[in-house]
Amino acid sequence: MKNAFQVSDQKSRCPWCLGFEEYVRYHDTEWGVPVWDDRIHFEFLILESAQAGLSWATILKKREGYRKAFADFDYKVVAEFPESYVQELLLDPSIIRNVLKIRAAINNAKCFMEVQNEFGSFSNYIWGFVGGKPIQNRLSSMSEVQATTKESDLLAKDMKKRGFKFLGSTTLYAHMQATGLFNDHLESCFRFTEV
């Protein structure tokens, strides 16, 4: 894969992030950092469900569009989006204009709050699938990265039972990696020991 973007520092990074500056910044500052804040979890659930069938780079480039369109990821507001706003979103080029994904985000906001009511927070719920602390994988190459794990399989099954949509095991494993439930930085990456 030819990189369109060259990083000026000499730090060793996970190779998947080397496409453009915003991707590198995301990798260096956010990806794999443990998240305990429900609003951030909700943001990533919206973005990752939107990603289904697309690249994360595409979603990352539209992140600010999603932030504006989805009320700064306020799940209480998103849960109340009326059908008229769904129709507006379908005309908004700053997001992925897929009616099923948009409706899934609204549905998932409602399910998200039900989980909060049951567990005290979504964070309490999701961290329970990894025993409350990050799983430290020790990966030496990208070929070792799995698409799913037993934890993501269990989470996907449970979330489906709770009514969540567009959040299968692969998508939820990406969520668990992004929000630090798994440390899947390569051991050679400078962020491996920092998160």
Describe the structure.
This protein is mostly helical and 195 residues long. The chain has a single domain (35-183), classed as Endonuclease III, domain 1, CATH 1.10.340.30. It contains 10 helices and 2 strands, in the order ααααααααβααβ. The chain has helices at 21-29, 38-51, 56-61, 63-69, 75-78, 83-89, 99-119, 122-127, 150-161, 169-178, and strands at 135-136, 182-183. Strands 1-2 form a two-stranded parallel ribbon. It is globular, with a radius of gyration of 17 Å. The two termini are 27 Å apart. Pfam families: Adenine_glyco. This is DNA-3-methyladenine glycosylase I. Keywords: Metal-binding, Zinc. It comes from Algoriphagus chordae. One of its GO terms (molecular function) is metal ion binding.
Notable characteristics:
globular; Adenine_glyco; two-stranded parallel ribbon; mainly alpha; 10 helices; Endonuclease III, domain 1; 195 residues; single chain; metal ion binding; DNA_glycosylase
Q: Provide the β-strand percentage band.
A: under 5%
> What's the total count of β strands?
2
The number of helical elements comes to 10
Question: Could you give the order of strands across the largest sheet?
Answer: 1-2
Question: Rg from C-alpha positions?
Answer: 17 Å
Q: What's the pLDDT, averaged over the residues?
A: 94
Total domains? 1
Q: Describe the global form.
A: globular
CATH class category label: Mainly Alpha
* Main sheet characteristics: 2 strands, parallel
Give me the CATH architecture, please: Orthogonal Bundle
Poorly predicted runs of 5 or more residues: none
Element-level helix/strand string: HHHHHHHHEHHE
The level of helicity is 40-55%
The CATH topology turns out to be: Endonuclease III, domain 1
The computed structural class is mainly alpha
Distance between the termini: 27 Å
| Quaternary structure | single chain
CATH superfamily: Hypothetical protein, domain 2
